[in-house]
Amino acid sequence: MRRESKLPFESIEAAYEYVTLLADAALEARRDVAEQQARARGEGAERREQGLQLAAFKLAQLGIHLQQSRRLLNDLRSLRRVLSGERHDGAATPTGAHRNPRGEW
């Protein structure tokens, strides 16, 4: 029997979806910051422009980390599928190995 989870992410898929939404929000924030940065540059607000430049850098870093997190979550989903298949089939195909028509590796 499966235990009901009270955690915000009940599955790897839910976490993957959340990270995807967060990455989209970070990208939108980067666009907004770029617009504000251009406006500050046009107004000659040097200090504000520098602050926005730092914000843009931090958002870029966040985007990189979120992409890495998505890849890791995707890898975990794939591994779970492989392991589930291994349990159901009795033996999984080793990575990169294929059976020939006679059933040999």
Characterization of the model:
- With 105 residues, this protein is an all-alpha fold.
- The chain has one domain (12-89).
- Helices cover 72% and strands 0% of the residues.
- α1 packs antiparallel against α2 (46-89).
**How far apart are the first and last residues' alpha carbons, in Å?**
36 Å
Helix count, per DSSP? 2
Q: Give me the count of strands.
A: 0
Count of separate structural domains: 1
Beta-strand percent range:
under 5%
Indicate the low-confidence ranges by residue numbers.
Answer: none
Q: How helix-rich are the residues, as a percent range?
A: over 70%
Largest sheet: none
- Overall body shape: elongated
SSE arrangement, N to C: HH
**What does the average pLDDT come to?**
83
Radius of gyration, in angstroms, nearest whole number = 23 Å
Q: Which class best fits the helix and strand makeup?
A: mainly alpha
Please describe the structure with a list of short key phrases separated by commas or semicolons.
105 residues, mainly alpha, 72% helix
Helix and strand layout, with pairings?
Elements: H1 12-43, H2 46-89
Helix pairs in contact: 1-2
A few lines on this structure:
This protein is mostly helical and 105 residues long. The chain is built from two helices and no strands. It has one domain (12-89).
